[in-house]
Design a protein that fits this description.
The chain has 2 domains: 158 residues, Alpha-Beta Complex (Amidase signature (AS) enzymes); 187 residues, Amidase signature (AS) domain (Amidase signature (AS) enzymes, Alpha-Beta Complex). Helix content is 37%, strand content 15%. The radius of gyration is 19 Å and the shape is globular. The relative contact order is 0.15.
Length: 382
């Protein structure tokens, strides 16, 4: 099965036979500590050079203690450094909801597996869009929570200032139950929901057909919704500043291991690693200041109590097998839509509501910090 890695457990793992998730089957991305097992972070040489985990990642133990059974480890993009979902070594997980197309990455296998009817939910991670884009391409519910709402201990770091654990499901009730288990209870927002608004500047980044489908859907389901513009800043500038900050943390968390162990790396991922290695402190300091100004701007344009609504991706899933140069412009456009949530540490949920040329496109809800539970409750209203 192309969505599972070769080192996936041959038998399901069960720690408890009762709890909120009792009887549910799930999968986990190939970057998390599973007691007695090794991880590859999408790269076979990493797998060959690491040791089995001594325990389960805390978030994973919480899920297992609530009665769910772990049924496998899923393929991800190499070192999580892509939004496309193709892995040179482990293959491209098959997206049954968009035939001949990529599943999106880097949580590719976790998303593609749920286009079958074999599992109830799956775990991914989201740094720059790695849950939201696969959710959109595969027609799933997927969430990037508020940064630090879920414990990431035992999850291999990419860019800790942006890294989050996220999850997928097809069923709204199951999705909400998983959220209830995963989200810490200490940092829950007590602000009351006031209104939805269309993020008009993000909608304008989408293909014409996606815009038309979105507008038609909103007209039929939220006819009185207001429009808003989240930022006066060009979204490619926001995405570029995100790229600098993310790359600088890759420089700290991934590149030292690569320099020490000299693994084989696919050319497209190596080009991103090389880019990250050349980021300067001057660039980083400018990007950090930019991020603080952006956070303040979004606080004003999207205050607490208001949820922005917009397409998760500017287009549906891309055809498989394209070269990296051809995909460059598509990745850039994806990041223009996904980078705001990461830069502002806000939760975002993607809900499968639209169709485009090749398959599904999600509608996203972007809330305020710690409004995760409100987004979970509101997904049934969209």
């Amino acid at each position: 099965m192309t969505y599972l890695v070769p080192h996936s457990p041959s038998k399901k793992i069960v720690l408890n036979n009762s709890g909120l998730l009792n009887g549910l089957k799930f999968l986990v991305k190939d970057m998390c500590d599973i007691k007695g097992f090794k991880t590859s972070c999408g790269n076979p040489d990493f797998f060959n050079n690491c040791n089995p985990a001594n325990d389960y990642a805390p978030f994973l133990k919480n899920i297992l203690n609530e009665g769910a059974s772990l049924n496998g480890i899923t393929v991800c993009d190499e070192f999580f450094y892509s939004l496309i979902g193709e892995n040179k070594y482990y293959g491209t997980p098959v997206n049954l909801n968009a035939h001949g197309c990529v599943p999106g990455g880097s949580s590719s296998g976790s998303a593609a597996a749920l286009t079958t009817d074999l599992y109830d939910f799956s775990i991914g991670s989201d740094t720059g869009g790695s849950v939201r884009i696969p959710a959109s391409f595969c027609g799933l519910i997927g969430m990037r929570p508020t940064h630090n709402r879920i414990n990431t201990k035992g999850v291999y770091p990419m860019a800790p200032s942006f890294d989050t654990v996220g999850w997928f499901a097809n069923n709204e009730e199951i999705f909400q139950k998983v959220g209830d288990v995963l989200l810490d209870k200490m940092n829950k927002s007590d602000v009351t929901f006031k209104q939805f608004v269309i993020a008009e500047d993000l909608l304008e980044l989408c293909d014409g057909e996606v815009q038309d489908n979105f507008n038609s859907y909103i007209k039929n389901n939220l006819p009185s919704i207001d429009k808003n513009r989240l930022s006066k800043i060009s979204k490619d500038i926001i995405a570029d500043n995100f790229r600098i900050l993310q790359g600088n943390e890759v420089k700290t968390n991934i590149i030292p291991w690569i320099e020490k162990n000299k693994p084989k790396i696919s050319p497209e991922i190596k080009s991103r690693i090389d880019m990250a290695s050349k980021i300067t402190n001057i660039e980083v300091n400018k990007a950090l200041a930019f991020r603080e100004n952006l956070i303040d701007e979004i606080k004003n344009s999207l205050p607490e109590g208001t949820i922005a609504v917009f397409p998760t991706a500017p287009f549906s899933a891309l055809k498989s097998g394209q070269d990296d140069e051809s995909l460059g412009s598509f990745r850039k456009r994806l990041m223009e839509l996904t980078s705001i949530a990461g830069m502002t540490s806000r939760p975002q949920i993607s809900i499968p509501k639209l169709k485009d040329k090749t398959g599904p496109v999600g509608i996203s809800l972007l809330g305020w910090q710690y409004s995760d539970e409100i987004l979970l409750n509101k997904l049934v209203e969209i």
